[in-house]
Structures are given as C-alpha cells and as structure tokens.
Design a protein that fits this description.
Blueprint lengths: L12 E3 L8 H9 L4 E4 L12 H19 L8 E6 L7 H10 L4 E5 L4 H9 L3 E6 L2 H9 L4 E5 L12 H8 L7 E4 L5 H10 L3 E4 L13 H9 L5 E4 L7 E4 H6 L46 H21 L1
Parallel strand pairs: 1-8, 2-3, 3-4, 4-5, 5-6, 6-7, 7-8
Antiparallel strand pairs: 9-10
Helix pairs in contact: 1-2, 3-4, 7-10
Length: 322
C-alpha cells in the first residue's frame, strides 16, 4: 500500500530528477499540476563563499506551493522530492542532508548507493525514502538499509539506465516486496503509465518528456532535439560518466564523435566532488530516454501533465470497455 504522501495525486506519476534540467521552476509547475516534482540537490550549485543555494531553492518551492494551496484548496499541489546522490565523491552529501532535514523534505530519492544514515534523516523529519535500483540485488540491499520504496530503472530510461526489461524487473521485485514501487523506462504517454501499473508498479517515473518544457533548465537546442528525435536516436554508453546511460545520438555527432563507435569508461571516473558527473568536455552531450517519440512540441509542464492525464483516463476507459 502506498504511504499517504503518494496517494491522491492527479495521476500516479513522479517526475524524475534530471541533472541540470530540474530546478525550482520546473518542480513548482509539476507539483501544481498534480504530480510529484523533483530535483537533484547537486543542481543547486553556489559559488565559493555564498550561502547554500539548496536552502534558498527549498524555501522558494515551499513558499510558492503554500501560496498555491491557499488559493486553490480544492486542488492542492502534490508534494516535492529531492534527489541525493549517495556516491563517495559527493562531498556535499552531509551538508545537503542537514539542509533537507531542516526543511523537512517530504520525499527523498537516493541513487548511486544506499546508506542507512540518509534514510534515517528522511524518517527523522517525517519523510519517506525511495531508492533507484537497476536489478534485484540492488533492490534487496536498498530495503535492508531502510529504504521505504524502490524506483525500478529499466531499459530505455534516460540518464543512468538499467538493462533489464521492465516486465522482468517488476515481476521479480514483487516476489519479495509489496511496498511502494515506481517504474522508469520510456514512459511518455498516459497509456504507458497505465501499463506500468498493470505490470505491478504503483507509479510511473517520468523524466525525458519534461526536458522539452518551458520551465526546464535546458538550452533550446536540447529541447528541440528531444522533439525531433525518437527511440532510434538514443545510444547507451558509459563513456561520459563511467556508468552506462542513454544519450541523444545527434548531440554526440555535434560533438565530433561517432555515436556508434564510442569507447567505454570505468565507473571510477565518476566524480561528484564539484557537483557534476560530467566533465566540461561533455557539457553538450545530452541525455534522454527512449520514449521521446511521443514528444511533439515544447510546451509548459502543466500542458504536458494535462496530456498525460487525458491519455491515462482514455486508456482506462478503453480497457474497461474491452
């Protein structure tokens, strides 16, 4: 059964936290539209000597959502989430945990490592902890270390994607876990959201379609490439961060490389010490999942959620009629 904080969403969707792309503007609009919005804590990067930008972002999100709720008591905003990169090179982790604890962040998303102290901090301030996993082994470890729920990152997902078929991954997880389970991997339509639920997930985890939104912190060329591309335009590579992820082939070609002949990189090359896993040389290599064929234009985040909600309702009606 889902915890109360994940119930009563407009549609069963959590917007995934995306490197650079997800910021306060996007999160606020996602939450106002009725789905969980999220961002990576490391996206809030301040210059040396400046106060923590993460605290300012959280205050802004809290205040704007509170104003929305007071003005719209009949349709309050969904809760928001913060992603903590639990990797040994993330030198900000302890500080960012303290800031999120102080702000009583309601949903914590952890990735690239499972650590009990992060889950404890989430629970201590009344929140829940969801952890990214790509296989059953990592799923079991995350639950042993205190995660409340799992995010199954299957083949086709944007960013650091897994390699397993979503049906196989969900099926095996459900053999030992009946708690909150999210599915990530090429979900870009309301019909796909319903399919994720039918497969055994509680909620869909959607990222790439939100790159092509007005509020996303992405350059216009990136947004338009999402609109112009489809599944055939995605390549999986470990070169850019040391961990396999999905990227847009045209952006790789624009950087002067052959997307079909990329070298590999070792996971030890990943470094979050300065708040980013990408070297400056890869700044225009753009990540994306395989579901972007459904994205036809750049539009406001609220309009994208409207489309997903309409398609989700229509898909349910069709199945019931059948």
């Amino acid at each position: 059964m889902l915890p109360p904080i994940l119930q009563n969403l407009r549609i069963p969707v959590v917007a995934s936290p995306m490197f650079i792309v997800s910021g306060p503007e996007l999160v606020i609009e996602q939450c106002k539209a009725g789905i969980v919005g999220s961002f990576p804590a490391l996206n809030a990067r301040e210059r040396d000597g400046e106060p923590p930008l993460l605290a300012a972002w959280l205050t802004r999100i809290e205040e704007e959502l509170d104003r929305h709720n007071q003005a719209n008591p009949d349709r309050p905003a969904a809760p928001f989430a913060v992603n903590q990169i639990v990797h040994k090179s993330n030198t900000r982790l302890e500080r960012d945990i303290e800031i999120c604890h102080r702000h009583k962040v309601p949903i914590w998303i952890t990735s690239l490592g499972a650590r009990p102290e992060v889950n404890h901090a989430a629970h201590d301030c009344g929140g829940i902890a969801l952890h990214d996993i790509i296989n059953v082994t990592y799923a079991r470890k995350a639950l042993e270390k205190g995660a409340d729920g799992l995010i199954a990152v299957a083949a086709g997902a944007g960013g650091h994607a897994g390699k397993q078929n979503p049906f196989a991954l969900i099926q095996e997880i459900r053999e030992f876990f009946d708690g909150p389970l999210l599915l990530s991997g090429a979900i870009a339509t309301g019909r796909a959201i319903l399919a994720a639920r039918a497969a055994g997930a509680d909620l869909a985890y959607i990222g790439s379609p939100f790159i092509a939104t007005a509020e996303a912190n992405a350059v216009e060329g990136y947004k338009q490439m999402i609109v112009d591309s489809g599944a055939d335009d995605i390549v999986n590579s470990s070169l850019f961060t040391g961990i396999h992820g999905n990227y847009l082939k045209p952006s790789i070609r624009n950087a002067g490389m052959d997307p079909d002949a990329l070298e590999s990189a070792d996971p030890s090359s990943m470094d979050f010490g300065k708040g980013t896993a990408k070297a400056k040389a890869w700044s225009e290599i753009w990540g994306s999942g395989q579901g972007i064929g459904a994205v036809k234009s750049v539009q406001p985040a609220a309009a994208l959620v409207d489309r997903l909600a309409e398609e989700y309702a229509a898909a349910k009606r069709e199945l019931c009629a059948a």
